Automatic annotation (TrEMBL):
It comes from Solidesulfovibrio aerotolerans. This is Fido domain-containing protein.
């Protein structure tokens, strides 16, 4: 089985793709169920910091769904909202504290689900964790979709698959189900047993069909290139 020891994220190509989505966002928006915030330079900068953080977690062999690793998921949310700027974090201190309380109340259920599904495929686990985090009550006050995409990428690359990255081609197929997931409540029996399972399957199929090897780099190839120099 491929693993995080073999692959990392290609941050340059991820940035290229996010910039392409930014450039074409007006056209993409015409096909969305609900108006979404465009990808600003700040959102992209913070997302890239988030992908770099995921890359470092994989390099360090951190298991984020272990009791000692869960705070890394919270840190990913802080990064997508505030980047790594200490003064910005200080400015939003009360918001981040409230976010921490909300996370503490919600992450246990997601971590338990992940542990129970650890034997399932990476795409199923990535889709399931995303759906549980984005559905109501959401795991974070803000930035649930972006943080969910980063956590999904961690799960996927850990198993040797490419990370999930927004592209002009996959944006509509990602945004529209994500919008529907946001309005379902995992505490309601019918939502959980029908709609959330339905959207988990939709997202799982989406990952299987759209994950792109361009966004994944092989450590073995990196080593070979270095040795040839």
């Amino acid at each position: 089985m491929s693993s995080h020891k073999e692959y990392r994220l290609d941050l340059d190509r991820i940035e290229e793709s996010l910039r392409a989505v930014q450039a074409g966002f007006e056209r993409i928006s015409e096909h969305l169920l609900m108006r979404r915030e465009p990808l600003t330079d700040q959102i992209i900068a913070n997302l890239l910091l988030g992908y770099a953080y995921v890359d470092q977690l994989l390099e360090d062999g951190v298991e984020v769904f272990s009791p000692s690793g869960l705070d890394h998921i919270l840190e990913l949310n802080h990064i997508v909202l505030c980047g790594d700027n200490d003064s910005v974090r200080l400015e939003y201190g009360s918001h981040l504290l409230e976010t921490r309380h909300r996370f503490a109340n919600g992450i246990g259920e997601i971590a338990d689900w992940y542990e129970a599904k650890r034997h399932k495929s990476a795409v199923r686990r990535a889709a399931g964790v995303y759906v549980l985090g984005v559905s109501q009550p959401q795991l974070f006050l803000e930035g649930n979709h972006r943080t969910g995409a980063l956590v999904a990428s961690y799960i996927l690359v850990q198993e040797g698959l490419p990370p999930f990255v927004l592209t002009p081609k996959n944006a509509v197929a990602y945004f529209n189900p994500s919008t529907m997931i946001k309005y379902r409540d995992k505490q309601k029996f019918f939502d959980r047993q029908y709609y959330l399972k339905k959207y988990r399957r939709v997202l799982q199929n989406f990952f299987e069909e759209t994950l792109d090897k361009r966004f994944r780099r092989s450590l073995r190839l990196d080593k070979e290139k270095t040795e040839r120099r």
